[in-house]
């Protein structure tokens, strides 16, 4: 589900202004809730094929739902997908999970068992059904309050891979949340932070409260309905009807909406445009509990994402700024301290709409305050007098290019042919097809804003040709006009 072009000149983008987002009742559903409407497009073609597909899975092998826009699904197909959806649901409802948890906690330690294969707390009457599985024979009360240590993280990068914060990262977020004066945290896809908050609250060492919104239903067996909602952050869908949505509303509206911060750690492969759209939906829920005079404010947010996605996040949420803090993960070998980690540190950063001078980064780790930028910056990030800001982003000290009139990565050189700084050994004009509009070639706007996009005259002149023939045409005639429309074989 990328909106970048493939080598064949084909790409896919999501249609967020369509009915697929605004009117969920008219949108087909898959096991992950309402689907999203996408458009497959070809370089040089004004319009392409629209289709519905899963909001959460990028791999069609994980969720194969596909329906052309305007096509009516047959009754047999509807029944088949209804069966698939029912088969993919959790074995119990959240209410049933809560009842099971109470029974489990009442058991003596010797009878508390956990099936690692099924990720399920077992009651004595269920032991026989799991004889062939790997079963943990003892579950302590401390393990019940820290389920991320019991559950095996999911590792499919194309669906919902789970990377858990390191202890150092959790401590940083807790200290910042408390210093900023928040009393509760909406954790969207951040189970490690949520369980730490709930564990400290249960022990009486902190009054901070939290609510976890996550697509992983396995957490439902460890938390009450007031502290967990089965939720898909890519389509703003609450599973199990209105009950979890109401629980989220009550949490957001507590204390008239004051004192709450949202911390979200979405899958890095997710479409930023979709995440921004759904985040705004959460903002709307929060604003419903505020006076009319505050209707334009945003919920204070800390969004964890790679630094190289900064421009996309800022395009969708202009009030957001990137912080230099490097977020580390316990179960990711590259995004943590250690011999296999990246030599410039983790590329994961924090984006926030909180004033940057209020977020204090740890000075013992080399962060310092830049009085000119009014924010804390990393050791290698030096203030450029010409740019009038601290420009480094990837863990290196950037250098200023007078020809480009901006700071660039230190290994880059200015290319006279490309008229910009590029990596050493790059191929000139290699990236030219990624710049500007894919339809008319104008660098001043993108494809979705092109005035020729829905031109009947231009569209009537296009013909479908095979991918192989099209690539041959591109190779034999590099100076030819816009490439005509072709049929794409896969959605990435």
Figure out the total of helices: 11
How many domains comprise the coordinates?
3
Mean pLDDT: 83
Output the strand order for the largest sheet: 13-12-11-10-14-15-17-16
Helical/strand content category: alpha+beta
CATH architecture of the largest domain: 3-Layer(aba) Sandwich
Main sheet?
Answer: 8 strands, mixed
Which regions are unreliable across 5 or more consecutive residues at pLDDT < 50? 1-8, 18-22, 454-492
Residue fraction in strands: 15-25%
Q: Could you please describe the fold and organization of this structure?
A:
This protein is an alpha+beta fold and 492 residues long. It folds into three domains: 1-89 and 441-492, no CATH class; 94-144, no CATH class; 167-360, Rossmann fold (3-Layer(aba) Sandwich). The protein is built from eleven helices and 25 strands. The chain has helices at 19-22, 75-87, 94-105, 141-144, 167-179, 191-203, 242-253, 272-287, 310-316, 456-460, 467-476; strands spanning 10-14, 29-30, 33-34, 36-42, 49-53, 66-68, 113-115, 120-122, 135-136, 184-188, 209-214, 228-232, 237-238, 260-264, 301-306, 321-323, 348-352, 368-370, 375-377, 383-384, 389-390, 399-401, 406-408, 412-415, 420-423. It has an eight-stranded mixed sheet, with helices on both faces. A four-stranded antiparallel sheet has the order 1-4-5-6. Strands 8-7-9 form a three-stranded antiparallel sheet. The longest helix is centred in the middle third of the chain and has 16 residues, at 272-287. The radius of gyration is 25 Å and the shape is globular. The termini are close together. Mean pLDDT is 83; it is low at 1-8, 18-22 and 454-492.
